[in-house]
Structure formats: C-alpha cells, structure tokens
Amino acid sequence: MNLTSVAPLMTERYRSTPELVAEVVREAILRGLLKGGEQLRQDEVAAQLGVSRIPVREGLRQLEAEGLVKFLPRRGVLVSSLSADEVQEIYEMRIPLECTALRLALPHVTDADVRRAEEILDAIDRETDLGRWGHLNDEFHAGLYVLANRPRLLALIKNLRANVGRYLRIYISLLHHKPRSQEEHRMILDAVRRHDVPAALAALERHLDVACRGLVTYLSQERDARTERSGLARSR
Amino acid sequence: MNLTSVAPLMTERYRSTPELVAEVVREAILRGLLKGGEQLRQDEVAAQLGVSRIPVREGLRQLEAEGLVKFLPRRGVLVSSLSADEVQEIYEMRIPLECTALRLALPHVTDADVRRAEEILDAIDRETDLGRWGHLNDEFHAGLYVLANRPRLLALIKNLRANVGRYLRIYISLLHHKPRSQEEHRMILDAVRRHDVPAALAALERHLDVACRGLVTYLSQERDARTERSGLARSR
DNA sequence: CGGCGGATACTCGTATACGATATGTAAATA
DNA sequence: TATTTACATATCGTATACGAGTATCCGCCG
To answer: Which residue of B has its CA nearest to A163?
Structure first.
C-alpha cells in the first residue's frame, strides 16, 4: 500500500488530522489504489502520513460511517467491496434522492449555471484520465444539485456516489460507455435549460438507471467468473 | 451531564467500546438528556463509562458522521441542534426514501407482518412514556421497511429518523398529536393490508408531511420566541 | 464602575506504551 | 503425509502522559 501519490493533499491545511486521513484514504479507495477486501494496516497509514495511530483510527471511523471501510473486531480495517446487489440498492436510493435534488434545483437554475455545466461536459469530452473523469462527472451533477440549496441532501448524494464511484470508473472505461453517458448528460442539461421539470427528471432517472443496469450486469459477470475460476481451481 | 440512566446498556456485550459509547450518547441525545448546543466533555463521558478518552472519541466520530454531534477544532464536541430549515430538509429526504422502502416492502408483506404491526400500534395506544413511544413508533415503521430487504436503505432511514427524533418527541407531547399520528398509522397499515401500493405510499407521504409541517411550524415559533426574548433582553 | 489584559487552570489532540488477541510457522502425533 | 498443537510474531485496542490551545478569573487602568 502506497499513499504517497495522494499525499500532496497533505500540504493543504485541513480542519483536523483525522479529516486529512479520511480524505487521503477515501481518495485512494476511489482511485482504486486500495482494492476491496484489502486490509489497511494502521501503523503503515500512520507512518505514511507522519502521524500516530490515534488520528488514523478516527479518520477511519469516519470512512466506516461512510461505508468505505469496515472495522473487524481485533482484526483491523478492511476496504469494503460492493456486491451487485449492494450497488443496485445504492442506485435505488440515489434515483429518488438525486431526482429530489434536481427538482428543487431547477427553479434556481440560471443561464450562467447551464453554461458552467456545458463547460464541464466539454471538459469531460476532452478528458482521458479516469480519475479526473470521475471528478468532472461528479462536478457536473453536483453543480446542478447544489442549486437546490440543500446541504445535507447534497452531502448524502455525494457519499452514495463515492461508494459506487470506483466501480463506475472501471465500468465506464471497460465498456467504453463515455459517449453514451455524455449523450445522457446533454439530454439532462437540455431539459434543465428549458426548465422542463418532468423531462429533466426522466432524463436523470434514465441516466442513473442505465449506469445501474450496466454496473450490476458487469459485477454479476465478474462474480460468476471468479466463482467459476475458483471452482475450477478447486476441482484441479 | 449524567449518563448513568442509559448506562444499563453497558451490561450488554457490544461489538466494540466505541460502538457502546456511540450507543449510549446517541440514546442520551434522543431522549433529550443532552440538549442541542451542549458541550460534551470527553473526560466526563469516559469516566462515566469507565473507559479512556480514545474509544470515546472514536464513538463520537461515528455520531459526528450521523450528524448528531459536531467536532469543533480545539473546542471539543457539541450536540447538534436542528433549525426548522434543516428539519424540513431531512423530511424532504425521508419522504422519497421511506416511500421507496415501503414500495419495495409491500410485495413481501404477510398477514403475520400486518398483525405484528397492529400489535405495535395497540402498544403505542397504551404507552405513556415518551421515550418508549419513540421506540415503538420507530419499530412500527422499521417493521414494515425491513421487509424490503434493503439493509443500507433501512440504516439510512433509521439515521434520518434519529436526527429528527428528539424534536418529534417534544412536538408529539406538546401538541397532543398522538391520536392523529395513530390515525395516520392505521391508514397506512390498512392500505398495506390490501397491498394497495398507491394508497399506502400516499398515506405514508401524508403522515410524514403532516409531521414535517407541524414540526417546522413549531420550531419556527420556538426560534421566533427565542429571538424575541433575547431582543427584549438586549433592549433592556 | 466598567472594560481590558494577563495569568491560571482546563480541556483538547495526539504521541507513546503496554496488554491482549489473532496469525503464521514449526514441531509433534496419528 | 496430513493434521493438530504450541509457540513466536505482529497487529490491534486502549490506558497513560504530555504539549498546546482556550476559557476564566482577577487585578489594573480608564
């Protein structure tokens, strides 16, 4: 495990050390540097960030609450991994929540907001790096939702998005899904521009539903493949 | 601050000490033993539970993630308090989430489940203690939602309910709202018994909406009254 | 008499240290 | 040779300890 590539975050001043730990480890999980199921050794994280294990443990407790890691009694902290079912469940929450956010945001959307969103979509078209793609994707959605002026709703959506984020990135890259995703983004934005609430919500729901189905199918196949392999290995 | 009245929880064996701390403090906040804005002295909590501050801090970090307390840098932990706006926002999340849970639960509802729910409603009718009323109320709703078999959704709803729970209890007792709440519960349960999805969702949404409006009105008046008082005090 | 500055005492945040438990390895036995 | 048991090692969980920042109280000045 090597967190030095995300360590630049350290130079910024954070509210607190546990928050810094949470930020660094969260980013590492999102970028796929830390795989699901992997054990996090607290000493190692502490050493890499130049702090003791106490703030590390507190930061990890926050990530536990976010669902990104799991404390196993006396056996340390594991990076969570999501099954196809769990991904589906998260989307079942995201769809009504993100639709609520978009619905509440729509009355406040200005031309400048639409232009900013367009710029993000153009940037996504040009982007090749997966990590930055993920952030831009989040920015597009959050840029709309933030206009709803509902900080808790926004934070919750952000958290749910973070949970499926690492799988979404694999899926987008492996299935070359970017053009389709961008088409859907522009459908949403067109409806938003016209302040057409039903169309915008329908487009957003479709967008999320497509991603959900794709992800679930992909993860189910993944699991079947793994089961198959281990079955073969056992039967050798 | 005195947590001994909730300390009986200590006798049970918990997965971990931080979880025990979170449980005890959460319950104290919910019961109104700890008021919003109140500072939690870590030494004191630690002493009352017979542990050191490290597991206490970890437990409080979990409550922070749940939104029940807030870490202020170098100034310790405060019990959060919700404004009318924040309560409204939480209900704006609860309504779509709880409707989703109920919708997914409905196909799996059996006669036995309905009977169990009826028993809880009868118990609520007989209940006079506010703390137990809160738990029974949660049990009625959770008892239906759990049938959806969506653990994350259930946990999220539980957390949102916990956040408004303390205000709801005040509101219910002060405004003698129990009979109306029970009427609404029975409306929901009747629709559930008939497996009438639209009716059940509409009844649930009404139930939540009524509580939301009542709470928001109550909290706004509260705040106005406080502002008025402090204004008078200042003008003296 | 009220506002301000400094010293004291708290409380917080975290590094260190230690006991306890899980894991891996090697030896012993069936 | 496979399986089990005992031991060594590593990691965890938390108590203790200490430095640092913050609030409080008292004396001083206006």
So the answer is: B152
Report the candidate in A42, A79, A28 with the shortest Cα–Cα distance to residue B58. A42
Mutate to test the interface with A, among B14, B16, B20, B58 (most CBs of A within 10 A): B58
Residue B77, CA distances (Å) to A21, A24, A63, A223, B71 in order: 19, 23, 19, 43, 5
Strand D nucleotides within 7 Å of a protein CB: 11-17, 21-23
- Say whether B96 and A92 touch across the interface (CB within 8 A): no
Note the pTM of the prediction, 2 decimals: 0.91
Which string of b and e fits A10-31 if b means at least 16 CB within 10 Å? beeeeeebbbbbbbbbbbbbbb
* Torsions phi, psi for A69 (to 5 deg): -135, 170
Q: What is the mean pLDDT of each run of 10 residues along chain A (236 residues)?
A: 52 77 94 92 95 97 96 92 96 98 98 98 93 92 98 98 91 83 97 98 97 93 70 41
Distance from B14 to chain A by nearest Cα, in Å?
11
Contact A153 B93 (CB under 8 A): yes
Burial of B229 (0-12, 13-18, 19+ CB in 10 A): exposed
Which residue stretches of A12-150 are H helix?
A: 17-30, 42-49, 53-66, 84-105, 111-126, 130-145
Domain range annotation of chain B = 7-79, 84-225
Q: Which CATH fold topology does B7-79 show?
A: Arc Repressor Mutant, subunit A (1.10.10)
* Smallest CA–C1' distance to C16, residue: A52
**Full strand arrangement of the beta sheet holding B76-79:** B39-40, B76-79, B69-72
User: If we measure between CA atoms, which residue out of A106, A202, A112, A191 comes closest to residue A145?
Assistant: A106
Which CATH fold would you assign to the domain B84-225?
Four Helix Bundle (Hemerythrin (Met), subunit A) (1.20.120)
